[in-house]
Amino acid sequence: MAIATINPYTGQTEQTFEPHGDAEVERRIAEAHAAFGILRSTPFARRAEWMHNAAQLLEDDIEQLARLVTIEMGRPIRAARAEVLKSARGLRYYADHAEEILAPEPLADPSVVGASAAGTRYAPIGIVLAVMPWNYPLWQVLRFAGPALMAGNTGLLKHASNVPQSALYLDTLFERAGFPVGAFHTLLIPASGVEKVLRDPRVTATTLTGSEPAGRSLASIAGSEVKHVVLELGGSDPFLVMPSADIDTASTVAVTARNQNNGQSCIAAKRFIVHTDVYDEFIRLFAEKVAALKVGDPLDESTDVGPVATESGRDELAELVADAVAKGANVLTGGEVPARAGWFYEPTVIEGITPEMRLYAEEAFGPVASVYRAAGREEALAIANGTTFGLSSAVWTNDPEEEEWFIQNLDAGAVFVNGMTASYPELPFGGVKDSGVGRELAAAGIREFCNLKTVWKG
Ligand code: NAP
Questions:
Q1: Catalytic residue among 83, 232, 316, 362
Q2: Which atom of ligand 1 is nearest to the CA of 159?
């Protein structure tokens, strides 16, 4: 895949970039290695000051950055601004909390291990290679970089090939903020160049956010090198609606939960599992509200849904829906590639999905909502858990006993009750099953890339 900005609204190539050659990649790895020597012995307070500067730079550059995101991957401009602000908030969270999260943990009674003092400390581990997706081109990277750098590590970024300008903005951000040269570097390389970097002995760990095949490939290389890996992969999150729920509110939130970021969020609700008692009411409201979304130019302030980021992504959605329709599914709204320039797909609601259809098992990475009818909570849970994914989940109920039952039994990295899944710097984020291993964000996210060092003193 060429490293290029191709505007999904027009389909036109805006700018193409030459990949970094071997010598440039080596220079950047060497600088990251040298910067680790500095950063690991830099006090938290100084790192925090630089991290606050980076957050401020993001806010200062908000208009330039939001426009860039919109042009590179089609995110509606209002949401692109929100991504910039959220990224700044994420950096500030780690600037303010890293020292307390990574504080030494002494054993209350060291005599039980025959020591005068004993406990653990969190030490940085070196260069972490991050392989990142295009769908939130700033937030995905910065929610890794914030904790990694605050822990005293350095970062190398291999960003998705279709967001090179975002990648190059991030390349200089931390240096502009005061961090030493090499604390964070972008490598403009294709996916095929990742293996060589990961096998470099100076690179100690890796993280990938993206598709399951890419995650498996990276993890197998990391495994053969015995390097720590964190994977944030796909999801096909359930959104369950039970009879006691506020159906009108649930149907409104469902529209956003599915169509945010033009439907291209790993934690977007993708399967709507509705109790039969409220099924007809829910799908009527849901389909009406989805049909009312304003689809169009993502630079237009009033646009709700823009194009899908890539032509192949749009074609894949069309194939998933066509396959389901051919096997008997019923489209309630949308279901077509509109006759216009750009890589649009109509926001779609489709019901009657059966296990023979690809939509049943595969992730729809765009504005396509599959609706399932469930006879009761056991069947709803079975449909929800009947997937290889386990990223997040949402359940709508006003019955406390039922709420607790779903929290306990949903096989997912998160359960959101009477709301839609979102990520917050303060809460851990990650999946089970094929959705990944490890956690990002909150205390868990910064500890992932630390050496939990046991200290024993005689
Ligand atoms: P992707 O094709 O896996 O790409 C993600 C990144 O991995 C890109 O930088 C890509 O580089 C690189 N890559 C691809 N194949 C690779 C390989 N074999 N070895 C090393 N690197 C490789 O995924 P995508 O289409 O961009 O993103 C969509 C997927 O990401 C969806 O499944 C979505 O659910 C998932 N996602 C998950 C999360 C989460 O936090 N769980 C968040 C966002 C997205 P190139 O661009 O150069 O190919």
A1: 232
A2: 9
Q: Please give the distance, rounded to the nearest whole angstrom, from the Cα atom of residue 131 to the centre of ligand 1.
A: 8
Average pLDDT over residues 348-355: 97
pTM: 0.97
Confidence (pLDDT) at 327 = 98
Active site residue 232: yes
Ligand 1 centre and the CA of 30: distance in Å? 26
As a three-state string, the secondary structure of the chain is: CCCEEEECCCCEEEEECCCCCHHHHHHHHHHHHHHHHHHCCCCHHHHHHHHHHHHHHHHHCHHHHHHHHHHHHCCCHHHHHHHHHHHHHHHHHHHHHHHHHCCCEECCCHHHHCCCEEEEEEEECCEEEEECCCCCCCHHHHHHHHHHHHCCCEEEEECCCCCHHHHHHHHHHHHHCCCCCCCEEECCCCHHHHHHHHHCCCEEEEEEECCHHHHHHHHHHHHHHCCEEEEECCCCEEEEECCCCCHHHHHHHHHHHHHHHHHCCCCCEEEEEEEHHHHHHHHHHHHHHHHCCCECCCCCCCCCECCCCCHHHHHHHHHHHHHHHHCCCEEEECCCCCCCCCCCCCCEEEECCCCCCHHHHCCCCCCEEEEEEECCHHHHHHHHHCCCCCCCCEEECCCHHHHHHHHHHCCCCCCEECCCCCCCCCCCECCCHHHEECCECHHHHHHCCEEEEEEEEC
Annotated catalytic residue: which of 24, 175, 225, 266? 266
CA of 437 to the centre of ligand 1 (A): 15
266 pLDDT higher than 90: yes
pLDDT tens-place string over residues 167-184: 999 999 999 999 999 999
Looking from the CA of residue 134, the nearest atom of ligand 1 is 26
Question: How much is the average pLDDT of 281-292?
Answer: 98
266 given a catalytic annotation: yes
pLDDT of residue 260: 97
Pocket of ligand 1 (CB under 6 A): 1, 131-135, 158-161, 190-191, 194, 208-211, 214, 217-218, 232-235, 266, 363, 365, 391, 436
- Residue closest by Cα to atom 20 of ligand 1: 191
The CA 214 to ligand 1 mean position distance, Å, reads: 6
Q: Sorting pLDDT into bands at 50, 70 and 90, what band is 137?
A: very high
Q: What is the pLDDT of residue 1?
A: 79
